[in-house]
Amino acid sequence: MPDSSWNTLLHLLAHDPAAAHLLDALTAPPPVDLRTLLAEMAALRQEVRAETQATRQLREAVEAHSPTTTPPPPPAPTTPPRLDLERAQEDARRAQGRALVETLDRLALSLPSAERLATPRRRWFKKEADPDALALLDALRLLNRHLRERLLDLGFETMNVAPGDRFDPERMEALGVVEQSDAPADVVTEVVAQGYHTPGQRALRLAQVIVNRSGRAALQDKSS
User: Fold this and answer.
1) Residues 139 and 176: beta-carbon distance below 8 Å
2) Which among 105, 121, 155 is the end of a domain?
3) How many Cβ atoms are within 10 Å of 117's Cβ, its own excluded?
């Protein structure tokens, strides 16, 4: 707008009230409609709520596919109480069996001496046995039978290893070797202590034996 026109407009507004009133009417903001304002606020609230829900769903989806925490490790397997009880019973059974076998071993060392003492000896014109030695021998034999019956009750049987049997490392333990040219190779020549086992299970005690010649390898493997 040229300066002359701008000056004329300012002069008119300053001296003509009607012109000033017209300018105020043209430049005044439009009147506010309360209903329209409330409707716009409600629409804005719905839009904000929808955006908030969409943002929450997006965050949940991201967390589901990209966990920020390491999942806890799976629980360690536990032994069922029944298996623990069965294991304890088996350990107790084998402990009793070993104690009985040790007693039988000591008893086996005593029996030959008792038998010699109970052997009848010539006294004057006849042979007589010492009554006390006979009583001791009977007691030892009775105890031996009782211990073996107790082993059977626990489920342990004698392996019945005998001289002439072929050496079996699953049932026998070679305590020594001999070289006998008149005996077959790799066979038992002497049973030092009998073995005991439950059929189908590991041995309670391997039979302790002396092996002829080729049993030397078994003894070396045992010592190494």
Assistant:
1) no
2) 155
3) 15
Range of the structural domain that residue 120 is part of: 83-155
CATH of the domain at 177: 2.30.22
Strands (E), 36-138: 121-123, 126-128
Report pLDDT digits (tens) over 114-133.
888 888 876 666 677 788 88
The one-letter code for the residue type at 105 is D
**What pLDDT, in 10s, does the model give residues 55-78?**
777 777 666 665 555 667 777 766
- Residue 45: burial class (beta carbons within 10 Å; 0-12, 13-18, 19+): exposed
Structural domains in the chain (count): 2
Calculate the dihedral angle through the C-alpha atoms of 161, 151, 98, 205, rounding to the nearest 10 degrees: 20
155, 180, 207 - which closes a domain: 155
Q: Could you tell me if 179 and 208 lie in one domain?
A: yes
* Buried-state track 132-154, b at ≥16 Cβ within 10 A, e below 16: ebeebbeebeeebeeebeebeeb
CA distances in angstroms from 93 to 31, 143, 159, 218, listed in the order given: 103, 20, 18, 30
Give the pTM: 0.54
Assigned domain for 147 exists: yes
